[in-house]
Amino acid sequence: MNPSHKELILGGQRSGKTRRAEAQVAQWLQQSVNHRAVYVATAYAHDEEMRQRIARHQQDRAARVPRMQTVESTAIATVLQTHSQADTAIVVDCLTLWLTHWLMPWQTAPATQDAVAAHTETLLRAIADTQAQLFIVSNEIGLGVVAADPATRAFVDALGLLNQRVAAVCNHVTLMAAGLPLALKQEK
To answer: What global pTM score does this model have?
Structure first.
């Protein structure tokens, strides 16, 4: 049996990460009327600008990939397990906000390192086990200057390590810059 396509798509803000994932899924859906698609949105709106941003993303996504179902959840592993079928493509957008949910939550205490490690292990197993075509979006935030404050440095470090671990279980890794993809890893 051929392994499913599992692609980590990295890049900065507005680099084209999500658009690439959606384009890949749109092509997938065109291949068969029996194909399904699920979009896992990990963002939460804690202010008006974020509410508007999410609404704009929802509207744009509906226009670009009308057959894609949206699931709003930070329980990525559970969604992957629920939709782990060979006839399904899944976009996870994004790991950066998923990690933010654990390390920098809105109005609650951050998760412990042990809890984050457990969630990460569960996520990695779900990625490895899924039979779905998978497109995972994450920010590459470690290319700039070193942050001035310890909390931001710790988050950049944690996201960099998470991206490395997810890249290890994916068979494709793409870096996006200015809307252009650069293949970093391509395995069968």
So the answer is: 0.93
